[in-house]
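Archive maintenance. Older records in this collection stored only the sequence; we are now back-filling the structure field for every entry so that each record is complete. The fields below show one back-filled record exactly as it appears after the update. Entries are processed alphabetically, and DNA-binding protein is next in the queue.

ARCHIVE ENTRY
Title: DNA-binding protein
Organism field: Pedobacter frigidisoli
Length field: 91
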Amino acid sequence: MTKIDAIIDILYKTYFLLEHHVGPFDGSRPYLEDEQLTRQQAKDYLGISESTYKRKVKDGSLKPLKLPGGDRFYKSQLYQEYKESIRRGRI
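Back-filled structure field:
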């Protein structure tokens, strides 16, 4: 493997990790300006009930930021759950 192949491999792996943790890079919104959602906004965005929300937090599929004013989410963190909600026909 040449040096250029190694660099391309590292760049590809970095891109893959970022896309799967942040969401797709569609250029619609810079990552630094990612929108924060409250608990209720996240439930509405995903089309889920309070009991489903609690279950998803408990099993780890939703990971809220625990702040004094309540749970908060970055919209990019909810991307996979959003796709699942679309697949299940919730939204």
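Update note: The radius of gyration is 16 Å. The chain has a mean pLDDT of 82.
Entry marked complete.
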